[in-house]
Amino acid sequence: MSAHIMRAAGTAAAAGALTALAAAGTGAAGAASTAPQPGPPRAVTAYVLNSDSVTPIRTDTGTAGKPIKIAVPGPPEILGAMAITPDGKTVYVANHGFDTAPADTVIPISTATSKVGKAITVGESPDAIAITPDGKTAYVVNQSGTVTPIRTATNTALKAIAVGSNPRAIAITPDGRTAYVANFNSATVTPIRTATGKTGKAIKVGIWPGYIAITPNGNTAYVVGTGNGISGTVTPIRTATGKAGRAIRIPGFPGAIAITPDGKTGYVVDRCTIGVTGDTVTPIDTSANAAGKPINVATCPSAIVITP
Prior knowledge:
Blueprint: H1 3-24, H2 26-33, E1 45-49, E2 53-58, E3 63-64, E4 68-69, E5 79-84, E6 90-98, E7 101-110, E8 120-121, E9 126-131, E10 137-142, E11 146-151, E12 156-157, E13 161-162, E14 167-172, E15 178-183, E16 188-193, E17 198-199, E18 203-204, E19 209-214, E20 220-225, E21 231-238, E22 243-244, E23 248-251, E24 254-259, E25 265-270, E26 280-285, E27 290-291, E28 295-296
Antiparallel strand pairs: 1-2, 2-3, 2-4, 5-6, 6-7, 7-8, 9-10, 10-11, 11-12, 11-13, 14-15, 15-16, 16-17, 16-18, 19-20, 20-21, 21-22, 21-23, 24-25, 25-26, 26-27, 26-28
Helix pairs in contact: 1-2
């Protein structure tokens, strides 16, 4: 049956249903009136990470709330990463510190009250946070070479998990079973089984891996190796086997990566570094694991997001 015939059939069915309601008279109207009515749209809040605070923004009104101050010592650039639980109840903020005085805490914020909870001690220089799809565990990547799981129900840190040298990024599969950690200095990715906290065999990738994204079906993790400033790589990893595929060469100084909701294309930004001015985004065909023609954008792209 062609698409337009299917649409016509659906329209006819809907029209028939409406006719039946009208013919039923008062009884139908009475039944309809008792049906649950949709309430007002749920207010959605965006949270913005600042140097020493978090600002909530009401998306329905476009207004910013009072910044939530996070009292930590040290200069600006102290807060390094942020993540929110799937139920929207808690925001976790990593207190990274700075090179000469690294910090080692994660601060929970209640979104219902905007109150800051007790700081949770993790490893040195926490740099990234990812939360499992069920919201039960937050995984904090510490540049000191560990990942600290946090039980979100109690805000309790569990035993740290040793990974590679200078880990920088983490992504969790959609089924929540495995976390993948990119180790910048080791040029490896460490898989962690979330059920046990055990690590798998380190997976070799391109040099200076600092970004990672997983396809929506969970089949492939793409790891960006920033390279030498002339070119870098994106290494696909089959999550079923933990095997790395052939590295995909990316021009320039690749950075952030995002994957379309249908999983067919990844997009990698070409960042700026000393002596190198990036101004492109490179698409990757995930079916062939091949880079397409770079897309010209403005100077020094640093992040990318894709509409749902």
